[in-house]
Design goal:
Elements: E1 6-11, H1 18-33, E2 38-43, H2 48-53, E3 59-62, H3 73-79, H4 84-96, E4 100-104, H5 109-115, E5 122-126, H6 135-145, E6 148-151, H7 154-160, E7 168-170, E8 196-201, H8 210-219, H9 222-225, E9 228-233, H10 242-253, E10 260-263, H11 270-275, E11 278-281, H12 291-298, E12 302-306, H13 311-314, E13 321-324, H14 329-341, H15 343-360, H16 363-377
Amino acid sequence: MSENPRILCVHQGGELYGSDRTFLQSVEAMRDAWPHASIKVVLAADGPLRGLLEGPADEVVVRPLGVLRLANPLLTLFKMTLGLPYFAGKAAMDIAAADVAYINTTVIADFQIAARFFRDRCVVHAHEIPKRRAMPVIRSLLKWSRAHVIMNSRATGTALALPDRQATALVYNGAAAVENPQALKLPGVFTQERPLRLAMLGRLSNQKAQDLLIDAIALLPKDDAARLRLRIVGSAYLDREEPVRELEAQIREAGLEGVVTLEPFTDDPLEVYRWADICVIPSRLPESFGMVAIEAMAEARTVIASAHGGPVEIVVDGETGWLIEPDNASALAVAIAAALADPAQVRKRGDASLRRFDETFSSRSMAQSLRDTLSRWFAALA
């Protein structure tokens, strides 16, 4: 074993959405586990994540990478054809200079292509359940790489369906625990003066289904809808304005201007979680994990989530929250109405959420599991 292992960590972006915050936790966990390691981080884009990484990492480099992005198919096609020798060559040079290469997310194609030639030192952390048209590409890349693969949920592992001969492990994502749980109790019974507070955090997209949540509230009796406050927090990819305008129009047409507000992405969502009584995750397509769910649970907030993908492994229906039929506005409206009618149940499920979080989804648990997995796989870190 090297006394000062060289660890390369690669990530697709520089923002502070779920996978970005998880990447930061992973780098911090590696620093804690191997304090004398030399940690180099390569990011595909600049952003607030870079500054946060400059603490646990020895070097942070920002440069274009061969990232697969369906939102930018022409650039992706170039990177995977004419630009492939350059991107894969640069990736190979980085991996060759490291003892262990940690590739965060499955869409970083150039490093997975290069990983095949360094399979004894590469790990890919899968945080996505790819969409149908992307799945064959992602699965082929992972199989080609022959890298070790960490799954962030059983749902992700089932969806990717890698061959048994490829080493895999389950490591649930984690979040920071609250310092004073008793200070986070919900502040009383809901009344006209104290509406039920709902929050939804995430990119504005059809997959995340902000529109479905608005439709669900519109289905409620007007008096019930008036007793709600919903904050939808997030921005569209590349800060496009069209998704915002569409949601604004939907809110106006439903007469919910006093109930629903749209807010841009925030890199520090703690205030939103602590404001809310319930966080809602109504995703149309399966989430690979559900970072918003565990961050809400860390603040003793309960969750309403679609019953597919990673949230099924996080939320215990009837105990820590509500699981509802995916892409069903009526089912979502029923869950919201049930919460609105029973404030004591909301508080009870919030308390249970915090206990479940502390047992399974804390950053402490995640760091220990990641350290154990990497140590088992790589002699340089044993």
